[in-house]
């Protein structure tokens, strides 16, 4: 195949990606990549950068789904040549290593990745939890931003953590009008209409919009920490949790990692629509590799989640931040609660199936489509 001139590649060095295609190495040392190299369309193993193919015209592809008539995401780990697609990269099934060595590797990887973030024109999405605090510690001069409604858990936690870290914090106070304006913009950018995706993306989008207004064009985020390090409740006791098929903590963690391509597509598109480029240091290959080698009791132990990440954060962030639990962003910001309130105020009562989804369709001026028919 003739080489592209130049390669149209988002993230990653073309030579590194070529070598990864030839070797099948899923973690060649990047923070994700997508685009074309030597005529082949590629997307990294975790789908950290989205790329789309037109169903109606498979020769057309784009990083922006809006530029295609009928876009579908290229699956993570796939190399596409003309009309054929093959999975070249899959997450490695690494054996657990010695606990001390595993902890050392995680700490080294996390600190190296967060400290490698270029601090120029970057802000940090900050919730006051260990994930975003570790990221913030890597860029000590970057301003911190949090969004939420009055009384929201994330705002209070971010304020306390920022004070303890001696950092400047901008609080983006949310209103119902903010949600009403932002929902159609998010739906247009991401193609997502279900209430969960919308509620997760809204705080990120609104924080990013404020950071752009303040002159920043990059936003550092803690994405990936829950999936890599066992942050979900369903990982704690997977044998008795219907939400996962695995019977072991490591197996359940692997299931949560499989959700990353879909989640990251949503988040990246939302942030880019707001005008910033996301920076996710906890999703660098070095961190992924270190996390995959963790034994189960360094993911979850005695009900505590993200054991290894919390250990890596010792001495890096305040102790109460390192050990604190945190609500999911849609709940910690009250965005999910207020979307529900707005839906009910607009006549979409809880007795109706998918009442918030119906409200979102109405906000966007669209005909409602039931989840099973989408």
Automatic annotation (TrEMBL):
<dbReference type="InterPro" id="IPR001962">
    <property type="entry name" value="Asn_synthase"/>
</dbReference>
<keyword id="KW-0067">ATP-binding</keyword>
<feature type="domain" description="Asparagine synthetase">
    <location>
        <begin position="114"/>
        <end position="238"/>
    </location>
</feature>
<keyword id="KW-0547">Nucleotide-binding</keyword>
<feature type="domain" description="Asparagine synthetase">
    <location>
        <begin position="255"/>
        <end position="345"/>
    </location>
</feature>
<feature type="compositionally biased region" description="Low complexity">
    <location>
        <begin position="1"/>
        <end position="11"/>
    </location>
</feature>
<protein>
    <submittedName>
        <fullName>Asparagine synthase C-terminal domain-containing protein</fullName>
    </submittedName>
</protein>
<dbReference type="InterPro" id="IPR014729">
    <property type="entry name" value="Rossmann-like_a/b/a_fold"/>
</dbReference>
<dbReference type="Pfam" id="PF00733">
    <property type="entry name" value="Asn_synthase"/>
</dbReference>
<dbReference type="InterPro" id="IPR050795">
    <property type="entry name" value="Asn_Synthetase"/>
</dbReference>
<feature type="region of interest" description="Disordered">
    <location>
        <begin position="1"/>
        <end position="30"/>
    </location>
</feature>
<dbReference type="GO" id="GO:0005524">
    <property type="term" value="F:ATP binding"/>
</dbReference>
């Amino acid at each position: 195949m003739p080489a592209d001139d130049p390669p149209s590649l988002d993230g990653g060095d073309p030579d590194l990606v070529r070598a990864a295609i030839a070797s099948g190495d899923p973690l060649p040392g990047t923070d994700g990549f997508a685009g074309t190299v030597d005529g082949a369309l590629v997307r990294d193993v975790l789908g950290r950068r989205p790329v789309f193919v037109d169903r109606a015209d498979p020769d057309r592809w784009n990083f922006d789904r809006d530029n295609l008539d009928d876009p579908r995401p290229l699956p993570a780990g796939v190399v596409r040549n003309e009309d054929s697609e093959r999975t070249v990269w899959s997450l490695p099934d690494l054996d657990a290593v010695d606990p001390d060595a595993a902890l050392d590797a995680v700490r080294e990887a996390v600190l190296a990745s967060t400290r490698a973030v270029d601090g120029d024109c970057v802000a940090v999405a900050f919730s006051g939890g260990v994930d975003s605090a570790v990221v913030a510690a890597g860029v000590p001069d970057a301003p911190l931003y949090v969004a939420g409604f009055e009384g929201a858990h994330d705002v209070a936690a971010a304020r306390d953590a920022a004070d303890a870290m001696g950092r400047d914090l901008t609080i983006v106070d949310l209103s119902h009008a903010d949600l009403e304006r932002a929902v159609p913009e998010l739906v247009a950018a991401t193609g997502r209409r279900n209430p969960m995706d919308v509620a997760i993306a809204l705080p990120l989008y609104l924080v990013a919009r404020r950071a752009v207004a303040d002159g920043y064009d990059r936003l550092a985020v803690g994405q990936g920490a829950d999936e890599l390090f066992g942050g979900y409740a369903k990982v704690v006791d997977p044998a008795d949790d219907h939400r996962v098929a695995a019977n072991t903590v490591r197996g359940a963690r692997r299931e949560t990692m499989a959700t990353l391509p879909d989640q990251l597509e949503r988040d990246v598109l939302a942030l880019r629509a707001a005008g910033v480029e996301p920076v996710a240091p906890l999703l660098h290959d070095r961190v992924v590799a270190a996390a995959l080698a963790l034994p189960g009791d360094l993911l979850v132990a005695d009900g505590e989640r993200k054991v290894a990440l919390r250990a890596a954060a010792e001495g890096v962030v305040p102790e109460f931040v390192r050990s604190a639990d945190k609500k999911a962003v849609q709940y910690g910001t009250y965005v999910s609660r207020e979307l529900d309130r707005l839906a009910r105020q607009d006549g979409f009562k809880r007795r109706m199936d998918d009442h918030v989804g119906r409200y979102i369709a109405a906000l966007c001026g669209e005909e409602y489509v039931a989840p099973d028919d989408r």
